[in-house]
Give the backbone structure.
Amino acid sequence: MSSKKSKVSVRVHSGTYLAAAAVASFVSAYLLYIGWETGALVTVVLALLCYPLAAFFDRIVFDGKRLGRTGIPFRMIALAMGRPRFIKPHRIVHVETEATRMFRRGSNIAYFYRTSLRADDVSFRVASGRGYRELISTVLPMIPEGCLDLRSTELRDHLKNAHEVRERARSLHIPAGDVLDTGTILVKPDIVDPELSSHPDDVEVQKSSELQTIANQLRANGRLVQAFEAFRRAHRLMPQNARLIYEFARCVQSLGAAKRDSKLERRSYAMLRIAERRSGSDADLLSMLGETYFSVGAWKRAEKVFKKAAETGNAGYRIFRGLGELALRDGKIAHAINYFSRSAEVAKPPSLFRWARSEADYLRHLNDDDEYMELEIGRINLHDTFDGARSTSIRIFCFGLFVIALGLASFEYLITDIGWAVAGLSLLIWLGSSLLKQSFASRIPFELLDKE
């Protein structure tokens, strides 16, 4: 496992280096403006050379046993704060993936994925790029199922090499997205209640399963129209398959979001309801349905599905956690404590058990101790205040740059000086707000309050 073949790495996705380079470039420009050429030269070298090099060599590496980060700044911070530099996959308690539509290539979507892997005392964040798919396909299968969010699970199972996926789709005679008549296949996607007497034979079952697999892989690679066509063909062979209908609905949901088509989004919701009715006692499918409802804001539907899954007797950690988060959203702290406690009972990895138990303890202290609740509310309000100050200062900084450019273009040095003052002050506010936001990001330990 520790051989070179099993070692995979990907560059760290972090805006810290870019922000540092931008700040250094601004300082360099100001030093040049006031006539300090030497200081400006040193600063611009730092901005254009040192920061990019540091970012290039800062990587998340998996050696077959542990995840680690190679960046010098990260090592220095970890050493100063006493944090570990390496973590084993089974100690990761939560994996969350965000997908951003970057641009369209014809009928295809280029997705930019960002995946955060969090343990008790350290976290790593990786993003799409060279090595990302290999790292995801290698590390995520080693992480307990309950620790992965829905999109991370989909990427683990379906994010394959794009060229291989295209070749396999071609072998199944699925036309390219540019060739498909999207106007025809989107108007009537063939999602209807068929006769229950339909009994597909073994050949049809195998063909449907193969089409379902390639459809999911096409969707993960952003080939949504091709994925839609593959799902449509699979559904015609297996119209009663609840999991197939659910995955088809997810594809329609993605396509509707990409096209900003409200009709497709409503259709995907209707397909989710069909999958829900046919799910039976499949707790895993019900859990995925509940998380999907939660992601689209269908809170009541999500709660019903999670409760239905809990009644099957096979409910896992994610189901009770979902119910706990819904209870928190409704302000039902006592219910949330109960659900998180139950999630800890069924959490199999020890690290996940400890995390779920700590969440239940945190909520219990909020519910029982008014002073602690006031402190936490104050901390959260300060965190949100500094986050808002960061956003506002960035906009003011951009305005300051515009004033600087206006002053230089008109040779009005007073306007230029005002621009430098506005941009510099807003930059200082941004730096201060960023540091203060980080300082208020962590919860106040209730043991500290007990000691007082």
